[in-house]
Design a protein that fits this description.
Layout (H helix, E strand, L loop, with lengths): L5 E3 L16 E7 L3 H13 L2 E7 L3 H9 L5 E3 L2 H5 L4 E4 L6 H9 L7 E4 L5 H10 L6 E2 L1 E5 L19 E5 L6 H13 L3 E4 L2 H26 L4 H4 L5 H7 L6 H10 L1 H24 L4 H18 L4
Parallel strand pairs: 2-3, 2-5, 3-4, 5-6, 6-7, 9-10
Antiparallel strand pairs: 1-10, 8-9
Helix pairs in contact: 4-5, 7-11
């Protein structure tokens, strides 16, 4: 698999006839009903692409809420019961938990079932999936919807979370055209933009565009609030709130993500350290308009990045 990025934009046909006599899936299983899983359930119900949406959650209150809010049709106490008979399964769990989930549900999968996930690190998950699914008819294709919120839990779920989001799909060496097509159709039916990319290229890019900003936001919040929070807090305006919003993310969830992509994150932090040292050296030396240069360059690069977001 090369590192070439292939973009497939949303369009009305979704690689299938416009008129379907039956829904795309008979039974979709969502394993994990936090923000991502619950939002997926709402999106599936709205899109009406599955006859049955089944969810798995360990906590009884989560299952009860999922049924009450009509996020799923069936809420299961056991993961094995949720995947039984499902033709499409989505693992909506922390990155470090997904490999164990694959192993646990593998023996209960229907022949030709397709499994995907929503993890924001792909190389470690895809490598494990290649071993877990070797020799069977069920297949795994990695996915990462670039969508979410600093909020978490079923209570924060939204039916439009995936709408117009970019979804990275990361096939492996043995991924079949059938499995890739079905995963692509799944996300496109939720009005997402699919980008096909290798797992390694995905992790390298996301380390820069997502994981580095999260670490910097956390460091910034920690630095600004290092002392006298009660006194300084009243002087924190929208600038502080905007630049540190994502630091509100679940620390355990993000620790799991960042540790599983440490090799690429280290390189991005080193690049950031280089920028910071250059700015510090210029300020200490004085003169030369170093601050203006950094500010102008930052604004220009931000504009180029966001202009290319929909390209």
């Amino acid at each position: 698999m090369t590192n070439r990025i292939i973009t497939m934009r949303y369009h009305k046909r979704f690689d299938m006839p416009a008129k379907r006599k039956k829904k795309l899936f008979d039974r979709v299983a969502i394993i994990g009903l936090g923000l991502m899983g619950a939002s997926l359930g709402l999106a599936l119900k709205r899109a009406k692409i599955a006859d049955k949406v089944v969810g798995f959650a360990r906590r009884p209150e989560t299952r009860k809420q999922a049924l009450a809010k009509k996020i799923v049709d069936i809420a299961c106490e056991r993961m094995e019961d949720a995947v039984q008979g499902a033709d499409f399964i989505v693992l909506c769990a922390p990155v470090g938990v997904i490999p164990d989930m694959m192993k646990q549900c593998r023996k209960c999968l229907s022949p030709n079932a397709i499994v995907t996930d929503v993890g924001s690190v792909k190389a470690c998950i895809v490598a494990e999936a290649e071993k877990v699914f070797m020799g069977g008819k069920a297949e795994f294709v990695g996915s990462h919807p670039i969508a979410g919120s600093e909020q978490h839990g079923l209570e924060s779920a939204r039916a439009d979370l995936y709408r117009r989001a970019v979804v990275a799909v990361t096939p492996a060496r043995r991924t079949t055209e059938r499995a890739l097509r079905i995963v692509r159709q799944f996300w496109q039916m939720l009005v997402a933009e699919v980008v096909q990319i290798s797992p390694e290229a995905h992790d390298r890019i996301i380390a820069r565009t997502s994981h580095l900003p999260h670490v910097i936001a956390a460091l910034l919040a920690g630095c600004v609030g290092r002392e006298h929070a009660g006194q300084y807090g009243r002087f924190c305006g929208t600038g502080f709130r905007d630049t540190t919003r994502i630091a509100e993310g679940d620390p355990e969830l993000w620790r799991d993500i960042l540790e599983n992509n440490a090799c690429f994150l280290v390189k991005e932090l080193e690049a950031f350290e280089k920028e910071l040292k250059h700015l510090l050296a210029g300020l200490k030396k004085g003169g030369g308009g170093v601050m203006g240069k950094h500010l102008s360059r930052g604004r220009e690069r931000r504009r180029r990045l966001l202009a290319g977001k929909g390209a």
